[in-house]
Amino acid sequence: MSIAPLHADRHARVTIGTRPDASYGARHNHAVLGLSEVMLAAADYPVLMMKDGETGAFNIIALFSFAPGENRYIVDDRWIATWVPGSMLRYPFYHDADAPHRLAIDEGCGLLNTAGGDPLFVDGHPAPFVADIADRIAALLDDITAAQTLARTLAAHELVRPLSIILTKADGHENQIDGLYTISESALDELGDDAALTLHRQGALRAAAVMLASLHQLERVRQLHDYASGHPLAGFSFSISE
């Protein structure tokens, strides 16, 4: 990637084709979600938690595959999902608070300067859709911060547990996937009345239930894996550490 601040002097003649860019999505096996996306994403993906590599804080994510660099929800260069996370839709744009239009752009994106693309600038000013993208990305960042707050709340109430996924190949070899987290059903059931009411008032109890139910989407990921890889798994299981 070659990310540069969006600027009329540099990008006045640049056009962009139809988004989202499936080639970008295909390189990611998960996406960080905003709070408002949790219920929507659960209709398609397992909604789990993953620790930020730098801060150690939990992010809420949608899982796309069992392996890094793969996205089983993209087939024939198209998303096959009812909901595509905002962090996938905003590409090739990024938030840049210091840029003139609050945006940076990946100049290596294959959608740029394609036939029939829309200009980023008109008469030296950002096209209306560019200004809209800047607003959407700013809102997404706030939404992700709210999701991180939710994850902290769930962890503080000791509802978050490690999730282990075991894939068994046809030759019997097992691959265990760690580093993911989910909600403990037993911990939810054991919540005291005061804690349950507090979480309910915050909307956290509903989100926890949605995330727990979305574990069943792991079977969909397995089905998509078998279809795309041509090497169906001989076995698949997951467990929650209590």
Order of helices and strands: EHEHEHEEEEHEEEEEHEEHHHHE
Largest sheet at a glance? 6 strands, antiparallel
Name the structural class: alpha+beta
Residues in helix, %: 25-40%
* Helical run tally: 9
| Strand order in space, largest sheet | 3-5-4-14-13-15
Using DSSP, what is the number of strands? Answer: 15
Strand content: 25-35%
Mean pLDDT comes to 94
Report the uncertain regions: none
Give a concise summary.
It is built from nine helices and 15 strands. The chain has 242 residues and is α+β, with helices and mostly antiparallel strands.
Description:
The structure is a single chain. By secondary structure, the chain is α+β, with helices and mostly antiparallel strands. It has helices spanning 8-11, 22-25, 38-41, 86-89, 128-156, 185-189, 193-202, 204-213, 217-229, and strands spanning 3-5, 15-16, 30-32, 47-51, 58-63, 74-75, 78-79, 93-95, 103-106, 118-119, 121-122, 125-126, 160-168, 174-183, 235-240. The strands form five sheets. The protein has a six-stranded antiparallel sheet, with helices on both faces. Strand 13 (160-168) and strand 14 (174-183) form a beta hairpin. It is globular, with a radius of gyration of 20 Å. The N and C termini lie far apart (41 Å).
Q: Any key phrases for this structure?
A:
single chain, 242 residues, 34% helix, 6-stranded antiparallel beta sheet, 9 helices, 3-stranded antiparallel beta sheet, globular, 25% strand, alpha+beta
Task: Provide the fold topology.
Layout: E1 3-5, H1 8-11, E2 15-16, H2 22-25, E3 30-32, H3 38-41, E4 47-51, E5 58-63, E6 74-75, E7 78-79, H4 86-89, E8 93-95, E9 103-106, E10 118-119, E11 121-122, E12 125-126, H5 128-156, E13 160-168, E14 174-183, H6 185-189, H7 193-202, H8 204-213, H9 217-229, E15 235-240
Antiparallel strand pairs: 1-9, 2-10, 3-5, 4-5, 4-14, 6-7, 8-9, 11-12, 13-14, 13-15
